[in-house]
Design goal:
alpha/beta; 6-stranded mixed β-sheet; 16 strands
């Protein structure tokens, strides 16, 4: 997703230098995604949700990277379970997590809007409660380019279960926090749930032509043992029924209901789908 890009000028096309920011995907456990957020200019990296620390450390070594931080989206063991091991292996490691979330081995508790840098990459903490009370999504930018790590708040075509919040909380996190990021933001999620999510989306949003096409693609990706991340926010607005709770096409779920009421009904249906 990140490489050489061009801009148009009056004298033709001008080559821009390659972007330093890139993301390395590290699948772990049964269906989790950990990631390395990399600044290639300095080879500094942050490990996102390194649940299986040995896999993430091995990938960093293979890539020649220096991990300086852990970015934890929420406290559940399949996301934060590798934090203590990471901290024991890397001196002076910064372990970031939500101030309200009791994240394992956390040294840098975060509130909404807090910022810090990984090399030249700026990272902004977004408080996205609903799945857990203190869940944090990480919006990372270099220049005009942005990626967001959403943990179990947003999935490709779906969202997480509501364990420590209300439907209003998770709706707000998806639509009014993550949904306000630029449309071309790359979305890196916490689990490979895409096929199941899109099967549900097709079930509840039958007239959405984008969905069947996306589902066919996702099934082929999995057959080929390829990833379905990253998505983009633009894509999620097209295919994600939870993001689309306020659209007219979703009114059939609960006629006359508010977007949050439709969202809550969708989440209940998905829990048993």
């Amino acid at each position: 997703n990140f490489g050489l890009s061009t801009i148009k000028s009056g004298k033709g096309r001008t080559l821009l230098p390659p972007l330093a920011m890139r993301v390395v995907i590290v699948p772990c456990l049964e269906d989790n995604y950990a990631y390395l957020l990399v600044d290639d200019a300095t080879k500094e990296a942050a490990a996102v949700d390194p649940a299986e620390a040995h896999l993430v450390l091995a990938k960093a070594k293979e890539e020649g990277l220096n991990i300086t931080s852990v970015l934890t989206t929420h406290h559940h063991y399949d996301h934060a379970g590798g934090n203590a091991t990471m901290a024991s292996k890397i001196p002076n490691l910064n372990v970031y997590g939500g101030a309200l979330d009791n994240v394992a081995a956390c040294t840098r508790p975060l509130d909404h809007g807090d910022t810090f840098c990984i090399g030249s990459v700026e990272v902004r903490a977004l408080h996205t409660p609903g799945h857990t009370k203190g869940s944090i999504s990480y919006y990372c930018t270099e220049g005009e380019h942005g990626v967001v790590f959403t943990g179990d708040t947003m999935f490709v075509g779906g969202c997480g279960r509501i364990f420590e919040g209300t439907p209003q909380d998770l709706y707000h996190s998806l639509v009014e926090v993550l949904g306000l990021l630029p449309a071309d933001t790359s979305v890196y999620v916490g689990h490979e749930y895409t096929v199941k999510n899109l099967e549900f989306a097709v079930h509840v949003d039958k007239d959405n032509d984008s969905l069947q096409q996306m589902l066919d693609w996702a099934k082929e990706q999995r057959l080929q043992r390829r990833f379905t991340v990253p998505s983009t926010l633009q894509n999620e607005w097209l295919i994600n029924p939870f993001m689309r709770s306020g659209s007219e096409t979703m009114q059939n779920i609960c006629p006359g209901c508010s977007p949050v009421e439709i969202f809550a009904k969708l989440r209940k249906q998905k829990n048993v789908f």
